[in-house]
Amino acid sequence: MGHYFVEIISAFSIHQEPVMYELPHNYVVSASSGRDTNIQHSGDGLPALISAPPAQFGGPGDQWSPETLLIASIADCFILTFRAIARASKFDWISMECTVNGTLERVDRVTQFTRFDVKAALTLPAGADSARARLLMEKSERGCLITNSLHADSHLEVSIVES
Prior knowledge:
Number of strands: 8
Shape: globular
Strand content: 35-45%
Helix content: 25-40%
CATH superfamily: K homology (KH) domain
Strand order of the largest sheet: 3-4-5
CATH architecture: 2-Layer Sandwich
Largest sheet: 3 strands, antiparallel
CATH topology: GMP Synthetase, Chain A, domain 3
Order of helices and strands: EEEEEHEEHHE
CATH class: Alpha Beta
């Protein structure tokens, strides 16, 4: 579920309205590197992103890696999916923090992620319906296009705080 905002500017006000374009969507990113240099990623209208192998694969461990970018995309997608579902459900919330732990293993001589543990902490305004919040978070887990595109198991752990 892609989430985009279009600014509508009038003489009187500025509004941001969610707009989702018709599917299919295509996303193009280019990567380049020299023999012993970091990878530079680029995409139309996007800032450059540098990556390198993680320390676990003998890299420096001080840059984003394919592994950490994948895990970050799961956290990002979960929050964006929740944001869209909460907006459509007219559900008020304050903030969310999402931490994802990805387990990389060797299965049948293939190195792959076998599990993603998603821990999402949601802060709600006083008096909010925490049971409804939990249902919306579970719906967000099922609706996340990134985890839906991966074959490893994904498990959600929810915590809800009322401010």
